[in-house]
């Protein structure tokens, strides 16, 4: 139960997940080409939520051990300590993951580095759209203008 409750608090480490604040927000899109990429490890969080949930759960379970009040008190304290440690480890584990650092050569600006997951299987040389909303995201640019394209009059 403890592992499930802490795991449910972990973010979905996918680029297709947006925050509730991003819904209805306006942003802008620019185009570029992937010129480099490398895998990166995303460190897990230690918000204290896992520690707290583990300590509470461990304390409750530990308090059921033993017959008299002294044994239950010792069980409760030991359970809270062990549960807190376990909760910290679980939280860090479920919030860590793998991602990719993409180096993008923008059509109209400096090169940019964007770190995100790679569900689309993007590769070096592909044209991408950089979407700037609640955070920067890249996606395969279907029907994007070719590199170096400039609309008439600009």
From TrEMBL:
Compartments (UniProt record): Cell outer membrane
Keywords: Lipoprotein
InterPro entries on file: Gly_zipper_2TM_dom
A Pfam family hit: Rick_17kDa_Anti
One cellular-component annotation, GO: cell outer membrane
Topology class, membrane: Lipid-anchor
UniProt superkingdom: Bacteria
Domain Glycine zipper 2TM: 49-89
Family: Belongs to the rickettsiale 17 kDa surface antigen family.
Name under which the protein is recorded: 17 kDa surface antigen
Source organism: Plastoroseomonas arctica
């Amino acid at each position: 139960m403890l592992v499930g409750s802490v795991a449910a608090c972990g973010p979905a480490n996918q680029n297709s997940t947006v925050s509730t604040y991003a819904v209805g927000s306006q942003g802008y899109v620019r185009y570029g080409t992937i010129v480099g990429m490398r895998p990166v490890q995303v460190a897990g969080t230690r918000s204290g939520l896992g520690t707290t949930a583990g300590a509470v759960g461990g304390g409750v379970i530990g308090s059921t051990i033993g017959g008299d009040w002294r044994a239950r008190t010792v069980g409760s304290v030991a359970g809270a300590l062990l549960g807190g440690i376990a909760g910290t480890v679980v939280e860090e584990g479920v919030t860590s993951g793998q991602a990719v650092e993409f180096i993008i050569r923008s059509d109209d600006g400096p090169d940019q580095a964007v770190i995100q997951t790679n569900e689309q299987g993007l590769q070096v040389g592909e044209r991408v759209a950089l979407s700037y909303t609640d955070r920067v995201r890249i996606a395969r640019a279907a029907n994007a203008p070719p590199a170096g394209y400039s609309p008439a009059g600009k």
